[in-house]
Amino acid sequence: MIGMSAVIFIPDDTAKTGYPQPLMLQSVMGAPLLAWLANALFDSGVGRFFLVCHDRYVEAARACLPAEAEVMTTMDSDPADLLHVFLSTAEDAEHTITVVTGPAVYLPQLAPQAAGRFPRVYGVSREELMQALDEHFSFARFLLDNGSPMNEEQAMYSVASPAELPEIAGLLQRNRLLALARTGVEIYDASSCYVEPSVRVAPGARLLPGTMLRGKTVIGEEAVIGPWSVIDDSVIGARAVVNASQVRESRVGQDAVVGPYASVRGGCELGRSVRAGSFVELKNARLGENTQVPHLAYLGDTESGANCNFGCGVATANFDRVQKHETVVGEGAFIGCNTALIAPLQVGSGAYIGAGSTITEDVPAQALGIARARQSNKKEWAAKHKK
Question: I want to staple 48 with a disulfide (CB 3.0 to 4.6 A). Which of 70, 72, 108, 272 is the partner?
């Protein structure tokens, strides 16, 4: 039985494995083994974690745990005093503590996959453990005498060596996707979808083939991701669509549409119902509600108000080889096709920019800015120059 608190040991097995860090911190499909374990436990109701590891691994270990979890850490040399504090602050109704002594994974969504592994996870009585903590305390002896081993029947699987990681990887991903499906997430093709343990996906969201969700990504209700989309450390709002595109370290508002073939780079904030369409690239761009960038445009270091329109081929020239400069576009502005906006620059609310312009000076609100050569038609020119 999984309790509400867990004690996790991260043994320094680097001499045995040859890895530069412990096996529990080794990456499996983009996330450390500890992250898979901790997030699965958290999703099953474990909200408090006590980590025991060498001080040089503490920061990496803490980063593996859910941000919402309560975490205490201590060096592996003498955990008894802090462990007593951790146990004494648990809720009175909490009788069982989960103790993980080494590399392991928790796969509650899968039927037992193997048998006969050496147990590394135990259920122990909180009261008995508190009473046993003294200067002569030995965790190994306590678990041998008082622990209840948890194995495949309780969905706990030990990982004996790095050679088992490829096998474990497939099980981890299947377990993750099944858990999402049982909350109401629609997954079109489990064999081609990848969701890291720290990702949160709301019920009703749809994950199409080729979807990859990484880091601290959050997917809102009824959002549609894919096909062939990568979302990394980003927040995607309810009912938003990300089609065959990449979004990294950004926020996409409700009902917004990204793609196909768009790239939303770090620092972007797309308001509600914004469209960043085909072959659009955004970097550090903040676009107001209902702003449209339908296709073939680059907006870098740009801030626009609501209800703006950026035509095909619009580009901000934001870098002068020394530093980046910002372009600010007011609410309701219309930027014509193939316009170059040379930053630093301000375009006022409701202003129009004529197609094909290179804008180097601020454009006042409600004004028409146009900067291109005047057209001249030479009558009968073609006939005279034919050979």
Answer: 70
Mean pLDDT calculated for residue range 37-63: 93
Any idea which of 100-114, 188-202, 259-273 has the lowest mean pLDDT?
100-114
Q: Is 325 a catalytic residue?
A: no
Written in H, E and C, the secondary structure of the chain is CCCCEEEEEECCCHHHHCCCCCHHHCEECCEEHHHHHHHHHHHCCCCEEEEEECHHHHHHHHCCCCCCCEEEEECCCCCHHHHHHHHHCCCCCCCEEEEECCCEEECCCCCCCCCCCCCCEEEEEHHHHHHHCCCCCCHHHHHHHHCEEECHHHCEEECCCHHHHHHHHHHHHHHHHHHHHCCCCEECCCCCCEECCCCEECCCCEECCCCEEECCCEECCCCEECCCCEEECCEECCCCEECCCEEECCEECCCCEECCCCEECCCCEECCCCEEEEEEEEEEEEECCCCEEEEEEEEEEEEECCCCEECCCCEEECECCCCECCEEECCCCEECCCCEEECCEEECCCCEECCCCEECCCECCCCEECCCCCCCCCCCHHHHCCC
Q: Choose, from 95, 136, 295, 325, the residue flagged as catalytic.
A: 295
What's the confidence (pLDDT) of residue 252? 98
pLDDT tens figures, 237-249: 999 999 999 999 9
